[in-house]
Specification:
heterodimer, A: 1015 residues, alpha+beta, Spore Coat Polysaccharide Biosynthesis Protein SpsA, Chain A, B: 433 residues, mainly beta, seven-stranded mixed β-sheet
């Protein structure tokens, strides 16, 4: 560098332009360098084997250049360039790195030099980067790296540059595009790391400069336009060290490298875990976005680095001499985790908001005539807040919110009662219940947990693991959700907002909705919430061949969610699909279009089978036991029977009285003679109502109940209610106008009847909800059935016997395991063994001299009669041997069952038995000798005992319980082998992931996104 | 076409609704277990001969307070009882326990299964009393029994007695209410399967005054009928009866007593509207001058009361007493009467009873009894069982057994009652709040 080149500012600046197939941007870049207000002292281009016209262009522009290998990295190219630049005598010699897709604005260099002139400690300065095409798009103003390796700019997505980030800021690093660096510092630090051939070399260099005691600043007065050609996959990654030459792979690998090479050593294990975890999560996300290549990049990037620890070790060693101050100096520039979380959340919310409430375009335009006389100091009219009360949806929402708040006055707290069992303590308990292969309910069950348990667990996890809170919130918000769901769905059938809102509120207060909330029917509630949305989607399947596969899997996913709560609802949808299939077949018979028929059949099959597969293996049980198609989650509580069901009132505890007749049936009957679309809804509605009426007559032992109770036809009636509301809206939309324009006839009478009955029902329902309707079976913080002292030992079995409400002579019993029934228990509850049934019967009739022996053989330790006690039963128990009264309190009477009643019992060859302490499911314990080990759990082929590495032979005892023969004393492990359960879960996860991937919109590769969109 | 489809769907819907509501008949979801619980018969004191009539030789029984809890065959139509009570597998036949001291007294009691509340109207705890309450715990768990006592001085301090499993406990009357001469006792098991019996035996010095087993009755009622009270009106030994009354509730009772006999129905002097203080046991002496040798009393009160009649009768030249207690409405039942020679007495406005008697020879004799107000009937000799096949409502009955040892009697109450219990069903909702 010649001394003559030194300018009046005392700096000598050499621009090094690295060129790699950059002919697209190069003319503007060269021009921008030439037009700097503070001219460059020297310019050198380094061509990395460009195969386009870049060299020709450089020659024409008379830019001196050198050439290096095509696979040479960015850092190596710079190093080669710096080597060629002669040393200057100036004390302030600067290198300005320019990418071939980066064009600095004319005053950029001047601004940079001005900033560094006032800050002698600054070794690196960088401009503000804006998009090449959208020049208001702020790309960077300094850069850092997050703990998970993400490139962190601190900017929002597509942030508009309006000067909000302006100023001179201390940063960790700046991009190499436009980076101004003191030559002595550059050489002292050894230049860019050659291991970072491309990407993240800037962050690494800044980090190293920082720990060497230098400052790095972003100067926003200096602006450069950047096309980010490599990052946006506009050009190939040709550098030598790039494995597979994939952009994302190299970027993620280099990010990990930077973190591991520069961070404090004691952070390395945590960083390694964090990087790997993030890679897995991101890979999952890319899989969902149908970008398996990117997903593999994520895993490979971390994997290829972690298998080369020597490289990290070497890099850390090389950095050590220049690490003059603590690496903690950079911690101020590493974004805290909450910043990333906040940014991610804001982006998600914004994206959601845009979908739900798209930004309305302004009604005013610059073309609008302006009022010249308008006083600029007069505030602009922004609309009165009171106008909200003129909006029906707001009014409906507020009214329903008030109503549900009063109605729920006994439901603020942990809910249970009706069909709803108690909630476990946390989401983790629900997850465990879902994953477990053995359930400690009654005498134990290996039935698969229903899928809705996993859905609840997921929702509870979102609610910070508070299952009880989530359930309470769900039952409180349910009417609002119902209203919202119906309002959203009904929109295409009416533009009358008041009619839509009235229909939606009526839907939220329909008999089936009220009964479901009051009696804790999760399945029916989910049917009611999702039903209107699904109905709209199902209507689209009439022309199933026109549906995209993504929509088909989206529908399947939604139906799968519904199926997980209600197989009854699935049955309804399956019937609708089958009707569609029949229609397809009839079409085929006419048209003989085999291909069309095949397409339709394939798609309808996918619609039918996918939701079922999503609920495996629970749904598979319904194939084996078809009656499960008629069951809903929770305890078996009787419905009201057919005399209420045909009026769309499911009946049972917590439902409206019979005289509160809703207009649902009337609307369906009126609509069936309509000539509008309402007739179609009415036809389906009447079929659903009829089927529901028929189902409500059926009685079948289920869900831990050994006698048949009239079935709950909730989902059938919910479907009838939905179709009735749709039919009603179609009829009433514009009816007033039509009736006014016609002579009086039967339509006037029918309309009057519908309106009158709706008004009558609305008044009655609201009145009932505000008064006696609040005294629902589902209530908060109800007293536990079991006395607390019976729950001290986990899993201890107590035979609870109780009189039926209102009939002290009718008794029911069940085996409790130290706690009341929990969510999911009834759905997996086994029937009581026949021997236990007989033993209890014998106690009741006073002949059960051996009852205590039988009960103790089943591991039952206590007999508890809940108050109010049945005196005859109490006398019978007192009269029989083997039961010793333990207590008689206000809760009830407790007898201790005589004999050994441990869960695991050892019997030696002489017939002497001793109880062996054991945990509730699997356990490691001790056998005192040769003999039989009996387990007081229902027999299941997955029960195993392993002693000295050998499985003991499993047989059944005289009571049908599992027992194992042991030939020696010693420790043994009792376990329930969950391999099959894990296999099913794996299959379910695979199906779920596949459907999710198919249903989610595919994300574009960066190379598929137009460069204009990116920058 | 489309409207027609709608019409068909509507028709289908209507059909389904009608069908469903037809099918929706109330079906009980509960099963019931029917059984005859074992009945307990009292053990006897020393020097007392005791036996039980059973239906057949195959009847099963076991001794209470013995090690074995196995039932064995009777091998005879009567089972001799020692000091230990016995438990009989009654299977629907009511057995009668009889006790006697040769030439001194005789008494009978209905063997019954455990009852919730037993009232004994009779007995005394004065110097003449040798009586006691026998508590039979036929269950295999320890029992706790509350005993409440009323006397002429009002309610006495009650006792709580613990009875070990499969054993008996005897509580002397003078230990319950020493010195009291008019007793009413209530026994309520707090826990356990307990049957109580009251033995009322009296001696005055060396002179025996007779004895009887006081049969228990149920809870107090406002209307009760005591039938089969033996009466004699010959000059040598005119009967005197003592009507014992109590209103155990919180309020005094006003009552009316009617005397029913073959001579007619009348209200004895002073008993048309009688006041009875609450909690005080009152004895009223009745000495009706009527020819009939059997009388009944019908009592109507405005408050629940209990009543019993103490009668002295002469049998084979010596006196014995008998406690007659109120009988509940007669229901079809089967009674084992082997070796008893019982006399049946029925009271009711209209009496129509169909009886079937099985003799020891195996022969069956059918009898139809009809009458008004009061009707007696002597069972054929060598009767083994007597079955009340049918009876019209409002009839009560009792039995008197006269032997050379004395007179005994008992109300016609089925001791072995078919127990219909709802078989509990397994239902997990019992462990839901």
């Amino acid at each position: 560098m010649a001394d003559s080149a030194k300018r009046s500012d005392g700096h000598v600046v050499t621009a090094i332009l690295v060129v790699h197939d950059g002919v697209t941007w190069l003319p503007e870049v060269v021009a921008s360098l030439a037009s700097q207000t503070r001219p460059l002292d020297y310019t050198l281009a380094v061509n990395t084997g460009s195969i386009d016209d870049s060299i020709k262009l450089l020659k024409n522009a008379r830019v001196p250049f050198i050439s290096v290998e095509r696979d040479c990295g960015f850092g190596s190219a710079l190093a080669a360039g710096v080597e060629k630049i002669p040393a200057s005598s100036s004390e302030s010699e600067w290198l300005w790195f320019i990418h071939d897709d980066c064009a600095p604005m004319p005053d950029a260099l001047a601004a940079l030099l001005s900033a560094v002139a006032e800050r002698p400690q600054v070794a690196i300065a960088g401009p503000k980067l804006r998009g090449w095409y959208d020049r208001t798009h702020l790309l960077e103003a300094g850069v850092s790296i997050a703990g998970n390796g993400a490139r962190w700019t601190g900017l929002e997505l597509r942030e508009y540059d309006q000067g909000q980030r302006d100023g001179i800021h201390e940063v960790l690093s700046v991009s190499t595009a436009g980076m101004l660096v003191r030559r002595d510092v550059f050489e002292e630090l050894g230049g860019l790391d050659p291991n970072l051939a491309l990407f993240r070399d800037d962050v690494d260099f800044g980090w190293r400069a920082r720990v060497a005691g230098h400052s790095v600043i972003a100067v926003t007065d200096a602006v450069a336009l950047h096309a980010e050609a490599s990052a946006s996959e506009r050009r190939t990654i040709d550098v030598k060290s790039a494995f597979l030459h994939r952009q994302l792979l190299l970027d993620r690998r280099n990010a990990a490298y930077v973190l591991l090479a520069n961070s404090s050593w004691w952070l390395l294990p945590w960083l390694a875990i964090q990087l790997f975890g993030t890679a897995l999560l991101r890979a999952f996300g890319f899989l969902l976005a149908k970008l398996p290549g990117y997903a593999s990049d994520e895993i490979l990037a971390v994997g290829t680095l972690l298998i080369h620890p020597g490289m990290i070790y070497k890099a850390r060693k090389e950095r050590k001499p220049n690490r003059l101050i603590s690496p903690r100096v950079v911690s101020a520039f590493i974004p805290p985790r909450w910043s990333q979380l906040r940014m991610g959340t804001l982006r998600s919310i914004e994206s959601l908001r845009q979908k739900i409430l798209p930004t309305s375009t302004s009604e005013t335009s610059i073309l609008d005539a302006t009022n010249e006389d308008e006083d600029l100091l007069t505030p602009m009219p922004t609309g009165k807040w009171r106008s909200i009360f003129r909006r029906p949806e707001a009014m409906g929402f507020l009214a329903l919110l008030l109503l549900t708040s009063v109605w729920s006055r006994h439901r603020y707290g942990s809910l249970s009662g009706g069909a709803l069992p108690s909630s476990p303590e946390g989401a983790i308990d629900l997850w465990r219940r879902y994953a477990d292969s053995w359930h400690n309910v009654g005498m134990g069950s290996a039935s698969p947990s229903p899928t809705w348990i996993a859905v609840l667990a997921l929702a509870s996890t979102i609610f910070l693991g508070k299952t009880a809170f989530f359930i309470t919130f769900f039952f409180w918000i349910a009417p609002i959700l119902l209203m919202w769901s119906m309002y959203r769905s009904i929109g295409r059938y009416s533009s009358n907002a008041w009619l839509k809102m009235g229909a939606s509120v009526s839907y939220a207060l329909s008999p089936v909705a009220l009964a479901s909330i009051n009696s804790g029917r999760l399945g029916t509630l989910v049917t009611l919430i999702l039903g209107p949305q699904i109905l709209l989607l199902i209507m689209k399947t009439r022309k199933v061949e026109e549906l995209s596969w993504r929509l088909i899997f989206s529908i399947s996913l939604l139906v799968g969610l519904l199926t997980s709560f209600s197989l009854q609802a699935f049955l309804i949808l399956a019937a609708v699909y089958l009707l569609g299939a029949v229609s397809d077949y009839l079409d085929f018979r006419k048209s003989h279009e085999k291909q069309l028929f095949a397409i339709r059949a394939t798609r309808r099959s996918a619609l039918l089978i996918t939701p079922f597969l999503l609920c495996l293996p629970w749904s598979f049980q319904a194939i084996v036991h078809p009656t499960r198609f008629l069951l809903e989650p929770g305890l078996a509580i009787a419905g009201g029977g057919s005399h209420l069901a045909w009026l769309a009132n499911p009946g049972g505890p917590g439902s409206l009285p019979w005289w509160a007749i809703s207009p649902i049936t009337l609307i369906l009957v009126v609509a069936i003679f309509s000539s509008t679309k309402a007739r179609i809804f009415a036809e389906f509605g009447l079929l659903f109502l009829g089927a529901g009426t028929l189902v409500s007559v059926l009685a079948y032992p289920s869900h831990g109940n050994s006698v048949g109770l009239p079935m709950w036809a909730g989902s059938w009636l919910a479907s009838a209610t939905i179709t009735s509301i749709f039919a009603g809206v179609v009829i009433l939309d514009g009816l007033r106008k039509r009736l006014a324009s016609t002579h009086f006839h039967y339509r006037h009478i029918m309309a009057g009847l519908v309106v009158a009955s709706t008004l009558f029902y609305s008044v009655v329902a609201v009145g009932w909800v505000l008064t006696s309707g609040a005294n629902s079976p589902v209530a908060a913080d109800q007293e536990s059935v079991l006395p607390p002292f019976l729950a001290v030992t986990p899993g201890v079995k107590t035979l609870v016997i109780r009189s039926a409400p209102g009939s002290s002579s009718t008794l029911s019993f069940y085996i409790a395991r130290g706690a009341d029934s929990m969510l999911g228990d009834p759905d997996t509850a086994p029937e009581a063994p026949e021997q236990v049934n007989l033993a209890v019967r014998d106690i009741v009739d006073g002949s059960g001299l051996t009852s205590s022996k039988v009960l103790s053989s089943f591991g039952i330790k206590y007999l508890f009669m809940k108050n109010p006690v049945n005196r005859q039963f109490v006398r019978a128990v007192d009269g029989l041997g083997g039961f010793v009264r333990n207590s008689a309190t206000a809760a009830g009477i407790v007898w201790k069952v005589g004999n050994i009643s441990e869960r695991v019992v050892f019997t030696n060859k002489a017939g002497k038995t001793i109880g062996i302490p054991a945990d509730p499911v699997g356990t490691r314990t001790f056998s005192p000798g040769a003999g039989l080990i009996s387990l007081a759990e229902n027999f299941d082929s997955s029960w195993e005992i392993i002693q000295d590495g050998m499985k003991l032979t499993r047989t059944t005892s005289e009571y049908g319980l599992p027992q194992f023969a042991t030939t020696q004393e010693g420790e043994f492990s009792l376990l329930h082998d969950g391999t099959a359960r894990r296999g099913w879960l794996a299959l379910q996860i695979i199906v779920l992931l596949s459907v999710l991937i198919m249903a989610t919109p595919g994300r574009r590769r960066r190379s598929d996104i137009s460069v204009e969109e990116l920058t | 076409m489309k409207l027609r489809r709608g019409f068909y769907i509507l028709l289908l819907f209507a059909g389904v609704v009608i069908l469903s509501n037809t099918l929706n008949a109330t079906v009980s979801s509960h099963k019931y277990s029917e059984s005859y619980p074992a009945i307990a018969c009292p053990g006897s004191g020393t020097g007392v001969y005791s036996w039980v009539s059973v239906a057949t030789k195959k009847s099963l029984y076991r001794k209470v307070a013995s090690k074995s809890t196995k039932f064995t065959r009777a091998k005879s139509s009567t089972i001799g009882i020692g000091t230990n009570p016995i438990l009989i597998d009654g299977v629907g036949v009511t057995s009668i326990a009889s006790q006697s001291v040769s030439g001194v007294w005789s008494g009978s009691a209905v063997c019954s299964s455990a009852q919730g509340e037993q009232w004994f109207i009779g007995g005394a705890a004065d110097v003449s009393s040798k009586g006691y309450v026998q508590l039979v715990n036929s269950g295999l768990s320890e029992a706790i029994v509350d005993i409440a006592i009323w006397s002429e001085h009002g309610p006495q301090v009650g006792k709580v007695i613990s009875v070990k499993a499969n054993s008996t406990a005897t509580v002397r009357l003078d230990a319950l209410a020493a010195g009291q001469s008019r007793l009413v006792i209530r026994v309520v098991p707090r826990s356990g399967r307990v049957t109580a019996f009251l033995m009322d035996e009296r001696k005055l010095g060396l002179r025996t005054l007779g004895g009887d087993i006081v049969n228990s009755v149920g809870a107090p009622t406002k209307d009760l009928v005591i039938t089969g009270i033996p009466h004699r009106n010959d000059q040598s030994a005119a009967s005197t009866h003592v009507l014992r009354l109590i209103a155990p509730g919180a309020a005094p009772a006003n009552l009316r007593v009617e005397l029913i006999s073959t001579d007619g129905v009348f209200v004895p002097v002073g008993l048309d509207s009688m006041h009875l203080d609450q909690g005080i046991v009152k004895d009223i002496v009745l000495k009706p001058t009527i020819i009939s040798h059997i009388i009944s009393l019908r009592i109507h009160s405005d408050q629940p009361i209990q009543a019993g009649v103490y009668s002295v009768d002469t049998s084979s030249g010596h006196k014995d007493f008998l406690w007659s207690v109120a009988s509940p409405q007669l229901v079809p039942m089967r009674l084992a009467v082997n070796s008893l020679n019982p006399s049946f007495y029925f009271t009711g406005d209209t009496i129509s009873i169909s009886l079937s008697t099985k003799l020891t020879s195996g022969k069956i004799v059918r009898t139809i009894l009809k009458g008004r107000e009061i009707r007696g009937w002597n069972a054929p000799k060598n009767s083994q069982t007597i079955t009340i096949v049918d009876v019209n409502p409002g009839v009560v009955g009792s039995v008197i057994v006269r032997t050379r040892n004395g007179i005994a009697g008992f109300p016609l109450i089925p001791g072995s009652v078919l127990t219909r219990a709802s078989v509990p069903n397994s239902d997990i909702s019992v462990i839901n709040r």
